Amino acid sequence: MNAPSTPSMLRALPAGQQRQLMRHAREVSFPQGTRLFEEGGHADRFWIIRTGRVELDMHVPGRRAAVIESLGHNELVGWSWLFAPPVWHLGAEATTPVRAYEFDSATVLDLCRQDPELGNAVGRWVGQVLAHRLRASRKRLLDLYAPYGAGASV
């Protein structure tokens, strides 16, 4: 179910920008089974996973939620905070105990406005993650619901 790993902050941001962002991180933990957010809810934070697994899922009318991707160490959970309106486009659940760095989106957006280089780097990083998630969502939904799966040509 996993496509190639999404770009981590460690690979996407220069060391100085990583340190700048990490000064505003808060360490959090979630027990297995915790819903981090629901599709359609207000997106006001994001996380970078330190340990554990988080599954992203998508509501499918008349069916149970479709798991889109499973995320782990150093991966970004939540990108919807960066784009107006800040509404979650997927849901997320801890499938194991999770330790993560949590970031308040208003704080990060202020940092990005104050430092355009940081804002550009964060935007590129989140954009790369978003592009990856869109491809993963499309492939997963085709695998689940298309007559011949994602590999079929129409």
Overview of this structure, please?
This protein is α+β, with helices and mostly antiparallel strands and 154 residues long. It has one domain: Sandwich (Jelly Rolls), CATH 2.60.120. Helix content is 34%, strand content 25%. Strands 1-8-3-6 form a 4-stranded antiparallel β-sheet. Strands 2-7-4-5 form a 4-stranded antiparallel β-sheet. The two termini are 23 Å apart.
List keywords for this structure.
DNA-binding transcription factor activity, cNMP-bd_dom_sf, alpha+beta, 4-stranded antiparallel sheet, RmlC-like_jellyroll, 154 residues, Jelly Rolls, 4 helices, Cyclic nucleotide-binding domain-containing protein, 34% helix, globular, 25% strand
